[in-house]
Write a structure and sequence with these properties.
By secondary structure, this protein is α+β, with helices and mostly antiparallel strands.
């Protein structure tokens, strides 16, 4: 049977999945070959690097090794070596003890281009905020740097005298940081007007760019998470000093002014909307996993501008007319896609019911990243899709996701990050809820990482901050849900939030699905180590044995 293969790309990564159909006798792994189709490397081929050469002594020099020398013992891989603008294609080649088995290689995939732009109107952006990683661990070790110094370096925005400082901030911020800064620069260059509704504003680079707009910037600025004071006090003062028109929304104990959206207008005409999960803060941009989406559509921009006007008029309260208007969806047609926008707070959780309806209608798979969905969040509805006793049960549905939550006060057993996948059966649902953590103990070539406890104490309270739900990305009705909304009851009933549901945009769904998969794989590996005691390398001789379970085959079929 020929090896099947497929490749996908968003603005930052390419994801490749291949399937030989059955275990291959004598196969020691797969080499993944890559060809560049455009740019300065056009026509050149190389092999994607494996993380490390496990055949080398553990005290040998660390470094990535070409997969034809150290083949992949898996059937999926996220290629982080390619960059935005690259157009590439791939093929998978079995490796034996005598070398590459070219006769059994897959065909080349169709070329995929790394681009944020998914269609004529929409672009999506992601950062690389995985502080719990080998990369960051070795960065800290090489510089003998503490986590507090690292956090300060990220916040300072880099020192021209130390080139690595700017590089680490730019690297972790990725296209998300780059494009938010570019958006503000474009607004200034064009003399456009910006209307923003923000929860946190503390990133020096972004604050300076916003302040440089002067009277062309209008900001509804909340008090952040400080329920008794003002988390954004210094930013508020800096904006006002620069001539920015700032409108206070000090909700404090009433709820959170949790939006992070901006509308770009030319004169009085709304043109663009930026939204997503990203707070305009160093943590949001660089040390948490987040996303941003930019849509060039006048009707959508008018919808968000109308909400900005309503928030500005509401002052520090939730007037009845604001809640009443929020309790109905705004439905728009953007190109071939249908887009529904919800704002909160709502009167009876109508936004949450809309999410449940989407979840119960899923046919192929549900992928998600969540932050603080709470005990009554949609993860319960998702779990019910895999519960045999549930009327919504579907044994063929693929479910992958990462949930990041804050611990309950005084409850040390509350998980801070939970990896949710269909692994070992549990009594209630066929879900395996694990706690991804940094690698606490070095083994083989792997260094001990920043742990969850260290991260929460010294870096920030969110490890995964994205709020993304992707449903049936390769089906007839692909759906992406994103925005500031934490998919929680509090977000629905207490806060200012925005939630965008895009149906029918397959390219957007694939881009977000790839992002979820990359985060999922990152934590799945660490969860696997935790299950097997990360003091020892959990490897066995028959590497293919665990890759042909029904679950693993279903996962590959989902992507292929």
């Amino acid at each position: 049977m020929a090896v099947k293969i497929a490749a996908y790309a968003n603005s930052d990564d390419a994801f490749i999945v291949w399937d030989p159909g059955a275990p291959m006798t004598g196969c020691t792994g797969f080499a993944l070959q890559r060809e560049y189709m455009t740019g300065p490397k056009k026509g050149t081929t190389d092999f994607v690097n494996n993380r490390i050469d496990f055949s080398a002594p553990k005290d040998s020099a660390l470094g990535p090794v070409s997969s034809d020398k150290s083949p992949f013992r898996r059937f999926t891989w996220t290629d982080h070596e390619v960059n935005s603008g690259d157009e590439v294609r791939y093929r998978a080649i079995p490796v034996t003890s005598t070398g590459l088995n070219e006769a059994a290689a897959s065909k080349w995939t169709p070329a995929v281009k790394l681009s944020a732009r998914v269609d004529d109107t929409t672009s999506c952006f992601f950062n690389r905020g995985l502080v719990i990683s080998q990369f960051v661990t070795r960065y800290l070790q090489d510089r003998k740097m503490s986590l507090s110094d690292f956090k300060k370096e990220i916040a300072d925005g880099g020192d021209a005298a130390n080139a690595h400082e700017e590089n680490i901030r730019a690297f972790l911020g990725g296209d998300l940081l780059k494009e938010l800064a570019a958006l503000l620069a474009t607004v200034k260059k064009n003399g456009s007007t910006l209307y923003a509704a923000l929860f946190e504003l503390s990133d020096a680079q972004i604050l300076d760019a916003l302040a440089s707009l002067g009277a062309n910037a209008h900001v509804v600025l909340a008090n952040g998470s400080d329920k008794s004071g003002d988390e954004n006090k210094s930013a508020r003062a800096a904006l006002k000093k620069a001539g920015v028109k700032v409108y206070d929304r000090m909700l404090k104990s009433k709820g959170l002014g949790h939006n992070k959206f901006a509308v770009v207008c030319d004169g009085n005409e709304a043109k663009q909307v930026w939204t997503g999960s990203t707070n305009w803060a160093p943590t949001g941009l660089c040390t948490q996993m987040n996303n941003g989406i930019l849509v060039d559509d006048a009707d959508l921009a008018k919808t968000y501008k109308a909400q900005w006007d309503a928030l500005q008029a509401a002052g520090n309260d939730f007037p009845d007319d604001l809640v009443e208007n929020n309790s109905a969806p705004r439905e728009l047609k953007i190109g071939a896609s249908s887009t529904t926008v919800w704002f909160t707070r709502t009167s009876e959780g109508q936004d949450m019911q809309a999410l449940y309806d989407l979840i119960f209608a899923a046919r192929d798979g549900i992928l998600f990243l969540m932050f603080m969905p709470g005990n009554d969040g949609p993860q319960n509805a998702i779990a019910s899709r895999l519960a045999p006793a549930s009327p919504h049960y579907d044994p063929n549905l693929l479910v992958h996701g990462v949930v990041s939550t804050l611990p309950n006060k005084g409850d040390p057993k509350q998980l801070d990050v939970q990896l949710v996948n269909r692994g070992k059966a549990s009594p209630a649902f066929r879900l395996n809820v694990l706690q991804p953590d940094g690698i606490a103990h070095p083994f083989s070539h792997w260094a001990a990482e920043v742990t969850r406890k260290q991260f929460l104490a010294q870096v920030g309270h969110a490890i995964v901050h994205s709020k993304v739900l992707v449903i049936d990305p390769f089906g007839a009705k692909p759906i992406v849900v994103t925005g500031s909304h934490n998919f929680s009851s509090s977000a629905s009933h207490k806060n200012d939030e925005n939630l965008m549901i895009v149906e029918g945009n397959s390219a957007l769904a694939a881009a977000y699905a790839l992002n979820v998969q990359a985060v999922f794989d990152h934590y799945r590996w660490r969860a696997f180590l935790g299950e097997h005691d990360d003091k020892q390398a959990p490897f066995t001789g028959d590497w293919q044995a665990g890759l042909f379970t029904d679950e693993k085959k279903r996962e590959r079929a989902f992507w292929l």
